[in-house]
UniProtKB/TrEMBL annotation:
Gene3D superfamilies: Spore Coat Polysaccharide Biosynthesis Protein SpsA, Chain A. It holds the Pfam family Glycos_transf_2. The lineage of its organism: Bacteria, Pseudomonadati, Pseudomonadota, Alphaproteobacteria, Hyphomicrobiales. Signal peptide: none annotated. This is Glycosyltransferase involved in cell wall biosynthesis. Residues 348-358 have a biased composition (Polar residues). Residues 11-145 form the Glycosyltransferase 2-like domain. Residues 334-358 are annotated as: Disordered. It comes from Rhizobium leguminosarum. It comes from the Bacteria.
């Protein structure tokens, strides 16, 4: 097993398909990293817009950028292409519409120093942003470290493909991202499948801060709940076969994942997804739906009762938390770039448009 140098080369891999409207902002957030020993590989996945030329043009201002291309084959194949061409000890994937805090890579490398030879995977929390780069939510700030295989089965708390820092050799050992999911019409959980494979043998380190701006736009992969759930089921099937004692936990996770996508589709007014997901939930999870509804009603009534009692007793109402584990909680309605605008260079102002996705 090779070990990284004191300042290892990091290979940033960006799969890009019809991404000309957001790619510059993504590239700027990488160029602005405080850790600068990077190679930046943009993999054009058969785009039909100006993605390839835009990336090549950007490479004339940041010579760490190298542009690769392939026929359209999906995000997994594009990532794998970049990983094969990479020279770095670690791989840092980022989708062409997501953005990073300037200290993301540096803080992740610091977190990995707790492991012998830095051999592990680092992750952080994320802020959910819209097509304009405005925060509308964030990941649950879990504190899982070390052996995170079982917690990750119960909840995909990493949550996206633009967050982890992973040893390249271990990604290759695991076979990279599974392009076969796309071929089965179930694209979406390639990243989770890889994280679980890595978690079976490697420790994970957490950087407790919201360092990834994860963009949700109508039409992107993460917005297609029905397809994501099909992908999740295919990923979990062989794990259930290997670890039958974890079946109950995995089934519970699948219910919560389905419920999350249903609520998201309902909130977004995406009634095509709602019509697909509602009968699926009723058919597969009738008992869980009843239990969940009762639990939610009880929790809501309990919270309401506590607030009324405090008002009657003249006690101060609880203030919303603004920090967790020392990190500022992303505030809804603010720009992700505002989290570091006063401390770092400004990003390219391209976030007001919507990226194209496969």
């Amino acid at each position: 097993m090779t070990t990284p140098s004191a300042r290892p080369l990091i290979s940033v891999v960006i799969p890009a398909y019809n991404a000309e409207k957001t790619l510059l902002e993504t590239l700027a957030s990488i160029s602005n990293q405080t850790y600068d020993k990077l190679e930046i590989l943009v993999v054009d996945d058969g785009s039909r817009d100006g993605t390839f030329d835009l990336a090549r043009g950007y490479g004339r201002t940041d010579h760490r950028v190298r542009v690769l291309s392939q026929e359209n084959g999906g995000v997994a194949r594009a990532r794998n292409h970049g990983i094969r061409e990479a020279s770095g000890f670690y791989i840092a994937p980022v989708d062409a519409d997501d953005i990073w805090h300037p200290e993301k890579i540096e803080l992740q490398l610091q977190a990995l120093r707790k492991f012998p030879d830095g051999y592990g995977v680092a992750y952080n929390w994320y802020a959910a942003i819209d097509e304009n780069g405005i925060i509308f939510g964030h990941s649950r700030p879990v504190m899982h470290e070390g052996n995170i295989f079982e917690p990750l089965l119960r909840e995909n708390f990493i949550g996206n493909g633009s967050t982890p820092l992973m040893p390249r050799a271990e990604i290759l050992r695991c076979g990279g991202y599974d392009a076969g999911l796309r071929d089965s019409g179930a694209e979406g959980c390639e990243d989770l499948k890889l994280y679980l494979a890595l978690a079976e043998t490697l420790p994970f380190a957490l950087v407790p801060d919201f360092l990834t701006g994860y963009r949700f736009t109508r039409g992107n992969m993460s917005s297609n709940g029905y397809r994501m759930l099909k992908s999740h089921a295919l990923v979990m099937a062989p794990i259930i076969a290997r670890y039958p004692q974890l079946t109950r936990d995995i089934r519970t996770a699948q219910f919560h994942t389905t419920h999350w996508y249903f609520n998201k589709a309902l909130t977004d007014g995406d009634y095509v997804q709602v019509k697909k997901l509602a009968p699926m939930m009723a058919r597969q999870y009738p008992a869980q739906l009843i239990i969940h509804s009762v639990q939610q009603s009880w929790r809501k009534a309990k919270r309401h009762g506590i607030l009324i009692a405090k008002r009657l007793l003249g006690k101060p109402l609880p203030r919303p938390r603004t920090r967790v584990a020392g990190a500022a909680i992303p505030q809804t309605g603010t720009a992700f770039s505002d989290r570091f605008g006063s401390a770092g260079p400004e990003l390219s102002p391209t976030s007001s448009q919507v990226a194209g996705h496969e």
